[in-house]
Design a protein that fits this description.
mainly beta; 34 strands; 18-stranded mixed β-sheet
């Protein structure tokens, strides 16, 4: 065990000497540590940080600003309540339960399990490996790194980044900001008004309770809005979007999408920058369907529903065919739209009831 008073650059030299963190990774970690005021004038050592280097198995010292662990873990690590930052410089698997106030926690390689039990606003960086992070109370920020990570925000309004790998992210309570990144991710907002970004890959997204905002990104995604008045974008790929309870806005994007409403008056957008053949299915509310006539099929539902044909005038229709409950409009350029259980049609130039 050794204790040092080190400047910002000296801490960087010591950590980078392990060869376990890339320059971009360490720069992000160091900036996060710096933002806590560890190196700011007025800290316990002026512009230097008090750093304690420990082998795994040693008890963490009291009142240390930075704890720097090296070696091979011998069991679960507990404590670190008085540290501003804890760095696990090992490619072995780390299991740690950390309390206290706001702090920065960083691990290198290995399949790590990090549980934060305090009430501070923590920042956690995990490196390569399939890591598990439970952030607990506070408005926390967690970066998953590479690997198939499991991140849980817990209470508070958290920022959770899966980054590379097939990640599982649960925002928990609070108004969370979740980004899956690359990979086929599962992203759950939990309670609160959440913002969820899928990224690349075919993601499964559940907004949960609250009024959520979702951008699924590239890939064939599945989105369930849940309770609340949600705004759901499928974007690229052949997506499935279900609004659930509440008055939702469902936007398919490019690809052959399926959009399903629920209770509440929903708005379906398959008209702007949407070149796919989409299926739009209303629910029990008063729904509005906006289509650009590219082979779309609309089924209204049990409410008083309206279809908006946004890129054609009524005079552009070449034929109108009625087959049972299904009406099909064919336009001069061969484009079609089929619909049923629709009470009102609004063309670009006029309204028909």
């Amino acid at each position: 065990m050794a204790t040092y008073d080190l400047s910002r650059s000296e801490v960087g030299d010591l950590v980078q000497g392990t060869g376990l963190f890339s320059d971009p990774e360490w720069n992000r970690i160091l900036e996060a540590i710096d933002s806590t005021g560890v190196f700011a004038p007025g800290s316990t050592s002026g512009d230097k940080a008090n750093l304690e280097a420990l082998q795994f198995g040693d008890a963490p010292g009291a009142n240390r600003e930075i704890l720097f662990y090296q070696g091979t873990p011998e069991g679960p690590i507990t404590g670190g309540d008085d540290a501003n930052a804890i760095i696990f410089a090992t490619n072995e698997n780390v299991e740690a339960s950390i309390g206290g106030g706001s702090k920065v926690v960083a691990s290198a390689g290995g399949d790590d399990k990090i549980t934060l039990t305090g009430h501070g606003d923590d920042v956690v960086f995990t490196g390569a490996g399939s890591d598990q992070v439970s952030a607990g109370a506070g408005d926390d920020t967690v970066y998953g790194g590479t690997g198939a990570d499991t991140l849980s925000g817990g209470a508070g309004s958290d920022h959770l980044f899966g980054e590379a790998g097939d990640d599982s992210i649960d925002g928990g309570a609070g108004d969370d900001w979740i980004a899956g990144g690359a990979g086929d991710d599962w992203l759950g907002g939990g309670s609160g008004d959440d913002t969820i970004l899928g990224g690349s890959g075919s993601d499964t997204i559940e907004g949960g309770s609250g009024s959520d905002y979702v951008e699924a990104g590239a890939g064939d995604d599945s989105i369930e809005g849940g309770a609340g008045n949600d705004i759901l974008f499928g974007e690229a790929g052949d997506d499935f979007i279900s609004g659930g309870a509440g008055s939702d806005t469902l936007v398919g994007g490019s690809g052959n999408d399926t959009l399903v409403g629920g209770s509440g008056g929903d708005v379906f957008r398959a008209d702007s920058d949407d070149a796919g053949d989409d299926d739009l299915v209303g629910g029990s509310g008063r729904d509005d369907f906006f289509v650009n006539v590219s082979g779309d099929t609309v089924v209204g539902g049990s409410g008083f529903d309206t279809i908006h044909i946004t890129n054609y005038d009524s005079t552009d229709a070449k034929t109108v065919e009625v087959d049972g409950d299904i009406t099909t409009y064919t336009f001069e350029d061969g484009s079609t739209v089929s619909f049923s259980s629709i009470e009102r049609i609004i063309f670009h130039d006029q309204e028909q009831s």
